[in-house]
Specification:
Shape: globular
Radius of gyration: 19 Å
Order of helices and strands: EHEHEHEHEEHEEEHHHEE
Helix content: 25-40%
Strand order of the largest sheet: 1-8-10-7-9
Strand content: 15-25%
Number of helices: 8
Distance between the termini: 18 Å
Structural class: alpha/beta
Largest sheet: 5 strands, mixed
């Protein structure tokens, strides 16, 4: 896939936020000026039954703000809480964490789901209001770099109008998904992939609207067998999906639908590859509703 260049982001703190060393103030002002005219990116957090994981992620995104990572933007935060599999009510501990979290960088809303939807239902419930309604989705097992928000602003600025892009992931993925022995690529640049990375994903709103409409049309079928989808026979995500399907947990994987969509519509995801990570999983708790997939 074609490679693209972008400047590595830096991390400092705006003077309007918690105090930082004076030496950083000039850089803070420069970054605030750089992004002053750009629309904020909404943060959408997905949670279900893991209160420790949610608390850890929320602490991580709060720390980004403390280090100036939101460049003075008024950043909206939505916490979407699913009902655990086999349950009729939400986890009280998860709701307590969500409602009790203080977010000083913009408006915070908590959106409990009416019934269990799984990871698939959680992702598909996110609907941009317009084609300019940008958001990044963060599942509750992530820790984030202080640079993640500025990285997303910069790639959106440079590549956000490209019709061949489905979106931008924060996940540094291996380039091979045909075996379990794949390693991270050795080159240090961004690259394009048909495989979506779920460890922080910012879709292009227009592409996401097309994707969710396409998924709704074929919901209840095997996405790998939909007309126009051409996936390699030994693709690992297909194997994972079939295993979940047999165990009755197909709603635990949304990425196979997006991979199929990318194949049918010839869309790519921009993948970062730097010496440092923009997102990692912390794995503080395990859940029956989660399988370690792309």
């Amino acid at each position: 896939a074609a490679s693209r260049r972008q400047p590595p982001p830096s991390s400092t703190t705006p003077s309007s936020r918690p105090s930082r060393p004076r030496a950083a103030h000039s850089l803070v002002a420069a970054e605030a000026d750089e992004f002053a005219g750009e629309a904020p990116i909404k943060l959408v957090v997905l949670a279900c039954s893991r209160e420790q994981a949610l608390a850890s992620l929320l602490a991580s995104i709060s720390s980004v703000g403390e280090h100036g990572g939101y460049v003075g933007h008024n950043v909206e935060l939505e916490i979407k809480v699913d009902v655990p599999r086999g349950k009729t009510n939400h986890s009280k501990d998860v709701l307590d964490v969500a409602y009790g979290f203080t977010w000083p960088y913009g408006n915070k809303t908590v959106s409990p789901r009416g019934q269990h939807g799984g990871i698939l239902g959680q992702w598909l419930s996110i609907k941009p209001a317009t084609e300019n309604d940008w958001f990044v989705v963060l599942e509750d097992d992530l820790a984030l770099s202080p640079c993640f928000y500025k990285y997303l602003l910069r790639v959106r600025r440079e590549y956000g109008t490209r019709d061949d892009l489905a979106g931008f992931t924060l996940q540094d993925m291996a380039t091979c998904h045909l075996s379990q022995g794949c390693m991270r690529p050795e080159f240090e640049t961004t690259h394009l992939s048909r495989i979506v990375g779920s460890w922080g994903f910012m879709p292009r709103p227009q592409s996401w609207l097309t994707f969710t409409s396409w998924q709704a049309k074929y919901n209840g079928t095997d996405p790998t067998l939909v007309s126009g989808v051409h996936l390699p026979d030994k693709l690992m995500p297909t194997k994972w999906y079939r295993e979940l399907l047999l165990s009755g947990k197909a709603d635990s994987m949304w990425t196979i639908w997006h991979i199929a969509y990318a194949s049918a519509f010839k869309k790519m995801t921009m993948v970062p590859h730097y010496p440092y990570h923009l997102s990692v999983t912390h794995g503080s708790q395990e859940s029956e509703d989660r399988k370690s997939v792309v």
